Amino acid sequence: MKKTPTSKPGNISPDDAALFRAAVGTVQPLPEQSRIIPQPAPRKPLFVQAVTKPAIPDTLSDGCAAQNFSDFADHDAPEEYLSDGLSRMTLRKLKRGNWPIQDSLDLHGNNSDAARKLLQEFLHEATQRELRCVLVIHGKGLNSREGGAVLRKLARHWLTQHTRVLGYCDAQPKDGGSGAALVLLKANR
């Protein structure tokens, strides 16, 4: 099978050259001094975002040593929480789903240190984005190596410490039930 030769740049047939001249007409190249050659925009280094991101203060505490959960796990985390000065009606509305869930965080598979940091960052970002209602999925602790719902108790304990958390309760069954907390955040004013 014989291949047909491909045309190389610079090998223009007389017909193509005439067609090109007819299309271009009397157009002439710009003088060298009138040419503007756009410069590519300087590239941002990829690490700039991480460097300029403000540090989030570490405000959440375990209340126990990171390696020893037994003392903390014996105490039940409150099933629901309401900040001082708020009406029980607020908690009732939260349970009924009067506020739509605007974002969620899944803490499954994280150890307590990682979960605490993730929760702290999530709450910080949620308040920056002016979210009012978020879902924190901590699980029921059914597969926990520490025995019991340690992460559930810790997450709920941390939520009571955060200054922007007005209250929380178990999520609706469709959103995780007792394996997740529906969290109401303060409105930015």
From TrEMBL:
Which residue numbers delimit the Smr domain? 105-186
Pfam families per UniProt: Smr
Q: Which SMART domains match?
A: SMR
Q: Entry's InterPro entries?
A: Smr_dom (IPR002625), Smr_dom_sf (IPR036063)
Q: Which residues form the signal peptide?
A: none
Q: PANTHER family of this UniProt entry?
A: DNA ENDONUCLEASE SMRA-RELATED
| Protein name in UniProt | Smr domain
